[in-house]
Design brief:
By secondary structure, this protein is of the alpha/beta class. It contains 12 helices and 12 strands. The chain has a 7-stranded parallel β-sheet with strand order 8-7-6-9-10-11-12, with helices on both faces. A 5-stranded parallel β-sheet has the order 2-1-3-4-5. Strand 4, helix 3 and strand 5 form a beta-alpha-beta unit.
Length: about 350
């Protein structure tokens, strides 16, 4: 029987793994993420199934080879946690899940935006302390009187655009590729126009190292409409935290909601004591601006539908590879140099 060590399996996910295991793989469900410290848990398996922030660097890939593991799959879209050069050296197979429920991310983006627009975090924080006075901070525009700018109008961005349009908002978008489907929902604008006109700006673009690192920088923020709300549920590497902090402190930016940070493995999925300083001082200062800053610990895909999509596609990736030698979601690995 094909044995798979599955990492980062939260307690609420166990039943999904078992119920969706239509190929009857022998699964070892491990709650912790893969690290250097727990790499021995992979022993005795034919394959591993990772999630984001698992460590599949050259050191752990070497261990996989030592253990006879030839399949290093991830149930995520991103795969930068896997050292592809190291995997290629041992002719391992690497596959990913290229997409899952776009509603999962889009709904979180909309929720963060609406919380900031209607000041619900601020208001419920006050009422939790038995303060029921309505103050000027609780006043807001209705979303139907707002313009929402969606940067990146692929499946997720288009889903969010539809959600906001359903609420009556004017929706505009920016994308290098302007699909016909998106044109039916929103009006495309140049990026500078979108930033100047939008009351809410939501980001849904992939991170391309060396091309759009920290695209949300001081220049980007300065072009935004004063008093606007910024949402990033895409990738933390797309944002310059210091620039966002400055825009918030100067009140140019009204609010910021994010599900991501760069180097988030140093922060997310850990429980810090209230008196502990976070590893990143700028992130600490952003957190301190709550409720103007709302942070969720990369939970965008943490829904029933998205989880089912990830697990089902992962199991199909294994089945396709085992039965036909490859999968449509297999990653092309770098060529290994033959030079001695």
């Amino acid at each position: 029987m094909f044995k798979i060590a599955c990492y980062g399996v939260r307690p609420n996910e166990v039943s999904f793994f078992n119920q969706l295991n239509v190929y009857n793989y022998e699964l070892t469900l491990i709650e912790g993420l893969l690290t250097h410290d727990n790499i021995e848990t992979a022993k005795g398996h034919d394959a591993v199934l990772l999630r984001g922030n698992c460590v599949a660097d050259s050191q752990n890939i070497d261990k996989f080879n030592e253990y006879g593991i030839k399949y290093v799959f991830t149930r995520t879209v991103g795969f930068n946690h896997i050292d592809l050069d190291a995997a290629a050296k041992y002719e391992m197979k690497v596959a990913r899940v290229p997409s899952y429920s776009p509603n999962a991310i889009a709904e979180l983006s909309l929720t963060l935006a609406m919380m900031l627009l209607r000041h619900t975090a601020y208001t419920t924080m006050r009422t939790s302390y038995k303060n029921f006075i309505v103050d000027e901070e609780m006043f807001s525009k209705e979303v139907r009187n707002c313009t929402v700018g969606v940067i990146g109008t692929g499946k997720i961005g288009l889903t969010e655009a539809n959600l906001f349009k359903g609420l009556g908002a004017k929706v505009i978008g920016y994308d290098i590729y302007q699909s016909d489907a998106a044109k039916e929902v929103l009006a495309f604008k140049e990026l500078d126009e979108l930033l100047a006109e939008s009351d809410i700006v939501s980001l849904h673009v992939p991170f391309i190292p060396g091309e759009n690192d920290q695209m949300i920088n001081a220049e980007f923020l300065a072009k935004m409409k004063p008093g606007a709300i910024l949402i990033n549920t895409a990738r933390g590497e797309l944002q310059d935290n210091e620039a966002i902090l400055n825009a918030l402190e100067s009140n140019h930016l009204a609010g910021f909601g994010t599900d991501v940070f760069a180097n988030e493995k140093d922060l997310f999925f850990k429980a810090f004591q209230p008196w502990q300083a976070l590893p990143d001082g700028t992130v600490q200062r952003l957190i301190d601006l709550y409720p103007r800053v709302l942070v969720t610990p990369h939970i965008g895909s943490n829904t029933d539908e998205a989880l089912s999509n990830m697990i089902t596609t992962s199991f199909e990736n294994f089945n396709d590879t085992l039965t036909s030698g490859t999968s449509v979601n297999e990653l092309e690995l770098p060529k290994v140099s033959q030079a001695v």
